[in-house]
Write a sequence for this structure.
């Protein structure tokens, strides 16, 4: 596959770096991006010469800001239940039998925060900001993005993230358990390299077993997610959801209330 939306590199040897390369839209993903990410994770995941996968975003503004709000009104573009086969990508990050590191170089927002949450480890620049925006833009991740987030940072904090849609600094992310470490922006690559080198020295089979064992406890969320995606595809067709996307594109506050009041 020729990649248009991502970059795949082996850098350094034994480490696959997958970069979402859409900086003009703050590394938001469209259907094509998700297909390419799936292809790249499959490639790195089953290549025995690769020990660690690093996921990041191009430029220094954003890691990833979720679904591309310019690429949809209602359903996203693509072949998945909601257009984007995002649930396949999320599962794949869990399924690859090796550690995945999120190198968070800027905003990790919406579906971007979900991807970072699903990575095994998160190394954040001090420029990074984290948060969910679904209820502000007419969306929600009714699976790993909510239920697994609660496992990672606790129920109260996860509900705060989703209901209030605030932004959190990298230091706050570390304090709540959403990131492992925060480093000055200029030291981000050196820190990621250090973690990769340590992982390269560990037994790959022991790491794979540990990862699968950690995953086993939250595996039921995969089922919740596929059921939730069916519901989400119906929500995306409502005026209430479309108002969220329109408001983002028109750079104004959404007004969800008339849509709610109009419902029978
Ligand atoms: C990232 C922001 C917080 C940055 O805010 P700010 O600094 O004020 O800058 P802006 O002017 O807002 O943005 C700069 C520039 O970037 C463009 N942009 C940013 N994000 C997107 C985006 N997601 N899509 C398209 N374009 C984007 C923005 O338009 C500006 O461009 P200009 O040309 O300069 O105008 C803020 O931008 C922000 O909050 N962004 C997030 C917006 C958003 O709504 N994201 C989608 C969230 S919903 C989602 O991801 C659901 C889809 C999905 O993935 C999913 C669905 C179902 C189940 C699971 C999932 C899942 O989450 O995995």
């Amino acid at each position: 596959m020729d990649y248009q939306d991502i970059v795949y590199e082996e850098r350094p040897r034994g480490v696959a770096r997958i970069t979402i390369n859409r900086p003009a839209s703050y590394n938001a993903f469209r259907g094509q991006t998700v297909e390419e990410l799936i292809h790249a994770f499959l490639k790195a995941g089953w290549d025995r010469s690769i020990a660690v996968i690093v996921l990041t975003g191009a430029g220094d503004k954003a890691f990833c800001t979720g679904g591309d709000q310019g690429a949809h009104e209602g359903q996203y573009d693509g072949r998945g239940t909601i257009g984007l086969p995002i649930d396949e990508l999320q599962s794949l990050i869990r399924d690859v039998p090796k550690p995945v590191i999120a190198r968070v170089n800027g905003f990790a927002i919406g579906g971007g925060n979900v991807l970072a949450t699903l990575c095994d480890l998160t190394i954040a620049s001090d420029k990074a900001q984290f948060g969910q925006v679904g209820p502000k833009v007419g969306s929600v991740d009714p699976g790993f993005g909510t239920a697994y987030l609660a496992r990672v940072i606790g129920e109260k904090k996860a509900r705060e993230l989703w209901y209030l849609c605030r932004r959190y600094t990298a230091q706050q992310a570390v304090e709540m358990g959403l990131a492992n470490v925060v480093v000055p922006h200029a030291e981000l690559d050196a820190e990621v390299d250090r973690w990769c080198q340590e992982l390269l020295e560990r037994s790959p089979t022991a790491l794979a077993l540990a990862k699968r064992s950690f995953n086993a406890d939250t595996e039921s969320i995969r089922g919740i997610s596929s059921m939730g995606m069916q519901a989400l595809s119906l929500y995306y067709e409502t005026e209430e959801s479309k108002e969220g996307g329109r408001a983002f594109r028109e750079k104004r506050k959404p007004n969800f209330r008339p849509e709610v009041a109009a419902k029978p």
Summary: Residues 41 and 92 are 7 Å apart (CA to CA). The chain has one domain: 1-186+203-264. The domain at 1-186+203-264 is CATH 3.90.226.10 (2-enoyl-CoA Hydratase; Chain A, domain 1).
